[in-house]
Design a protein that fits this description.
mainly alpha; 10 strands
Length: about 450
């Protein structure tokens, strides 16, 4: 494999105006109706990226923030799902793998919109609310909420009905990519089983043209990812009767905590547009209670995923286990024990790692197996603020901003040294810096 040249320094000059620098990144990644996460590595529109991007844009460009979400939801499927990638027809087909031709068979998408068939964490209602909350033109923002309300309801309804595969009131993910945290060590047993069953190692890895292999998922991980996606695609992306044959069905704490939090946002949106907000509040609280019942591990004192196929928790302590601090309805004891992890050896420090540092699988630079990401840090900061834990929230905020000043707007950062890793000029890092500085 060809060795990539050494990456140039991405450190920001001393005295750089972070707001101006972040806006410059987002301007460079704008494609007219949406923002790409990264010009080279991720040249299409990604679902939860666009939600985070809209949250940042809400501070500086209301129209563009609204357009970001509206463009994404323009590719919403008839069953309500919001696909994790909306492909740009003006981008070469081989710029990203797997591309639109891989996902196409069986996909009941809207006309002329090529998308993937899986989803990502549902941050979108919260993003829509943030746009309204920050709006300079409140009338235009209210009109935007009226247009977005039904699509957002359909999105949540899909997750809470078709994806309640465990029957306990939580949404299940059916592919590691749906978690947003692709090669989380919690997925290793499922990945190993799929590979043992003969999943073929991919011959195409477009990502390795841009980022060192040491910072990306391995070939075996990709073999499992493609096998799962192929199986789901070939059954027409149907969720009915998915168990027990599908090799990956998981209730994830980050995904469901974000869903509960966004359901709260839908209650606020409903109040603005004249809809019934009570049932959104009730669903949000029920999700928090189900999170505590199904995903809180009393031995670890942390939220963990549950394998729906075996009906067992997966005891891997990761940053996703801290995100339920966002959710309503979580018992006080679970909140207290979760927050305490931020003072222990696994998660304490200037930067918040993806995985508990004491885990044998911890790797501070490999994709989702240790590095610190702006979006997961931001979600935990929001969760801490919910519980008025302002000191811990401010420490995480300061640590992330220091890393950005030192290394630029990177995809992620070495959780021990702060060194930038992954791709550069990353959109959600820039967007969430805008929010953290507001």
């Amino acid at each position: 494999m060809e060795t990539l040249p050494a990456a140039p320094s991405t450190a920001l000059p001393v005295g750089t105006d972070l707001v101006a620098a972040a806006r410059s990144v987002l301007a460079g990644n704008w494609r007219g109706r949406h923002t790409v996460p990264s010009a080279r590595l991720y040249p299409h529109q990604w679902s939860w990226d666009s939600a985070f991007i809209a949250i940042g844009l809400a501070h500086v460009d209301q129209h563009r923030a609204q357009l970001e979400l509206a463009t994404l939801f323009g590719a919403q499927w008839r069953d309500g799902r919001v696909p994790h990638i909306v492909f740009d027809p003006d981008t070469p087909a081989d710029a990203y793998f797997p591309g639109p031709r891989f996902w196409a068979p069986g996909a009941p998408v809207l006309p002329r919109r090529a998308t993937s068939g899986i989803v990502q964490p549902p941050v979108h209602a919260q993003a829509a609310w943030e746009i309204y909350r920050r709006a300079g033109d409140r009338a235009a923002a209210a009109d935007f909420l009226r247009r977005m309300y039904e699509p957002l309801c359909a999105w949540h309804d899909y997750l809470l009905t078709a994806r309640d595969l465990g029957g306990a009131g939580l949404a299940a993910i059916v592919h590691p990519w749906e978690s947003g945290m692709d090669n989380n060590p919690a997925w290793d047993p499922a990945v190993a089983a799929i590979c043992a069953a003969g999943a073929a190692v991919p011959t195409t890895r477009a990502d390795l043209r841009h980022v060192p292999a040491t910072q990306r998922p391995g070939d075996a991980d990709y073999a499992a990812y493609l096998d799962l996606a192929t199986r789901y695609r070939d059954r027409g992306y149907a969720d009915v009767d998915l168990l027990p044959g599908h090799g990956f069905v998981v209730e994830d704490p980050l995904f469901n905590a974000v869903l509960a939090w966004s359901e709260e946002a839908l209650a606020r949106i409903a109040a603005v547009v004249g809809a019934n907000s009570c049932w959104h509040t009730e669903r949000a609280t029920a999700l928090g209670a189900a999170l505590a019942e199904r995903l809180f591990d009393p031995d670890l004192g942390l939220f963990v995923p549950r394998d729906v196929r075996s009906d067992r928790r997966i005891p891997v302590p990761g940053v996703a286990g801290l995100v339920p601090l966002l959710a309503p309805g979580v018992p006080a004891d679970a909140v207290a024990r979760t927050r305490a992890h931020l003072d222990g050896p696994g998660f304490a420090g200037a930067l918040l790692p993806t995985l508990d540092r004491t885990s044998p699988d911890y790797d501070p630079q490999r994709y989702w197996r240790g590095p610190s990401w702006a979006n997961t840090t931001w979600l935990v900061i929001r969760g801490l603020r919910r519980h008025r834990d302002y000191a811990r929230a401010e420490a995480l905020r300061a640590g992330l901003l220091d890393a950005v000043r030192a290394e630029g707007f990177r995809e992620y950062y070495d959780a021990d040294t702060g060194a930038g890793a992954g791709t550069t000029e990353f959109s959600w890092t820039a967007a969430l810096v805008l929010d953290l500085l507001a």
